Amino acid sequence: MNVAVCVKQIPDTADPPALDPQDHTLVREGKLIMDESDGYGVEMGLQLVEADGGGEVSLLSMAPNGERSGLRNALAVGAAKAILVSDPVLAGSDALGTAKVLAAAIRRLGPDLVLAGTESSDGYTGTTPVQVAELLDWPSVSFAKHIEISDGLLRVQRQTEAGYEEVSCPLPAVVTVTAGVVEPRYPSFKGLAAAKSKPVEELTVADLGLDPSQVGFAGARQQVISVEASEARKAGEIVVDAGDAHERVIRFLEQLKIL
Amino acid sequence: MDRTWVLAEQRDGVPAGIVLELLTAARGFGGAVEVVTWGPSSAGAAAVLGRYGATKVYDVGDIGESLPGPRVAAALAAQVSGGNRPDAILIGATHDGRDIAARLSVRLDLPVLTNVVGIDASGGRPTSEHAIFGGSTLLRAEFTDGIPGLFVIQAKSFVAEPAETSDPAGQRSPEIVAIDTPETGASDAARIVARHEEERSGPKLDEAAVVVSGGRGLGSPGNYALITELAQLLNGAPGASRAIVDAGWVPYAFQVGQTGKTVKPMVYIACGISGATLHMVGMKDAQNIIAINKDPQAPIFSIADLGVVGDLTKVIPKLIEAIKARR
């Protein structure tokens, strides 16, 4: 079976995030990395293809500036190829605009299964993958914490607020995976070297037959009115434990009448 | 705003807590408040929805073993496309709520604003508030085109309060209107074959007055027993950071933060939690925060009312003994 995994290239989460003062988009200067939460989808895809004994994992990514550094590790651990949709008109795209681009790329690729993270670690809207499913008229299962395939049917454990549901779902389908669904493997030196020669097809919005007004700032049909610092919660008293810090906690709880 | 719809997800036949929060917010917009619900029966939920201000309940009906996303979105979209068009639709940021919002957005070809923590409708057109960067920054946004505005709202953004009524005895249950679901085709092919609830005892995480949460700083899964015991002694609920949920130490139902529960207890005790932005966004509005962490540089100390720099495997057992000694 063929699996497409949506991967988002985001600014390094170790760096403090910032908004562009002009257009209020997330600043994406410098090297981008693959969103950590997409690593689970990549690993899940590789395991499903390996269990099936045929097919391959393709990566799907969208970035305004041709960035592909965030794809390298996923190619190194075993993804066969990538489609990168890159176009200046994509800047400012919202979740729906992004979904339109990804859905068009998926139609071109024709996979049996699309995997994505439940939400990105930078924008965390958490709607894009299911929007992709609706655009394709496919079923979707969100918040998967376990996936198996037997007789062409997906068997998914879907996390709920109170526990989990067992869901069966025919292919093709979109599944979003939670962190922890599988343990991602690390790339080897050999894999990293091989990644350099794996095909990355770069496409524009026009290549996908999409109208530019559907994506970017024009397609988003929403705007930021203001950005301000929240009323900051201040740091309070700090106690360094010298064996009796618990007594200070007790007094604090007494003041609140918890004790 | 003339009319607001609230998506009313049910839990065991009653509206989920966030639904009552959203109804309370919608009443403040001034116009009519109506809800859309689904499930085997809407009759039980309708009375509660009415008490919180709903005047009409659109009932999608029993969706059987389907996931709610495709069916509820299709039924909603058919109403809107057919001319029954509210100004805004408020959707709780639950797992099913996000699925419905995503599919509805495509069916109506309308954008959706997510992670909303507040809405101001005083200017006629609603503007939404979003707490970003772990809650350190407040962003306001609005739609520039398209009705209804689709808003996916975080739990605990509003305090649920029943509607005041001048004639409590005469308060009427809302009118229930059954609505049709158009053909959903392949998108509705997934089926729920079993449902499992993870057992928890004690107060609910998102309702408890005291929440004691543990993180990676516990060092090992066995040390989570300290969190459970302390929570129990304080009549509170045990919680967790995403790190230890992902590591499989405790179930997802314990998770506090962006992808888990939003909590606003009277006191939140963070043990061995450094304070990643995605955790802080779920607990920063606790009335009081106590943090215990061995790293004095941990970001959690920047928002804690009381910070204890120390080894939690030493501090917490002493705390537990001291509380027990008072009984």
Examine the coordinates and then state which fold CATH places here, giving the name of the CATH topology of the largest domain in chain B.
Rossmann fold
CATH superfamily of chain A: HUPs
**Rg value of chain A:** 22 Å
Any idea what the shape of chain A is?
A: globular
Proportion in helices of chain B:
10-25%
CATH level-3 fold name of chain A: Rossmann fold
Can you name the CATH architecture of chain A?
3-Layer(aba) Sandwich
> How does CATH name the architecture of the largest domain in chain B?
3-Layer(aba) Sandwich
Termini separation of chain A: 59 Å
What CATH first level of the largest domain in chain B would be assigned? Alpha Beta
Please give a structural write-up.
The complex is a heterodimer of chains A (259) and B (327). By secondary structure, chain A is of the alpha/beta class. Chain A has helices spanning 39-52, 72-76, 95-109, 128-136, 189-195, 216-220, 245-255, and strands at 3-6, 9-11, 32-34, 57-62, 81-85, 113-117, 140-150, 153-159, 163-170, 173-177, 200-203, 222-229, 237-240. Chain A has one domain (3-220): Rossmann fold (3-Layer(aba) Sandwich), CATH 3.40.50. In chain A, the strands form two sheets. Chain A has a nine-stranded mixed sheet with strand order 9-8-7-10-6-1-4-5-11, with helices on both faces. In chain A, strands 2-3 form a two-stranded antiparallel ribbon. The longest helix of chain A has 15 residues, at 95-109. Chain A is globular and about 65 Å long. Chain B is an alpha/beta fold and 327 residues long. In chain B, the strands form three sheets. In chain B, strands 9-8-7-10-6-1-4-5-11 form a nine-stranded mixed sheet, sandwiched between helices. In chain B, strands 14-13-15-16-17 form a five-stranded parallel sheet. Chain B has a two-stranded antiparallel sheet with strand order 2-3. The mean pLDDT of chain B is 94.
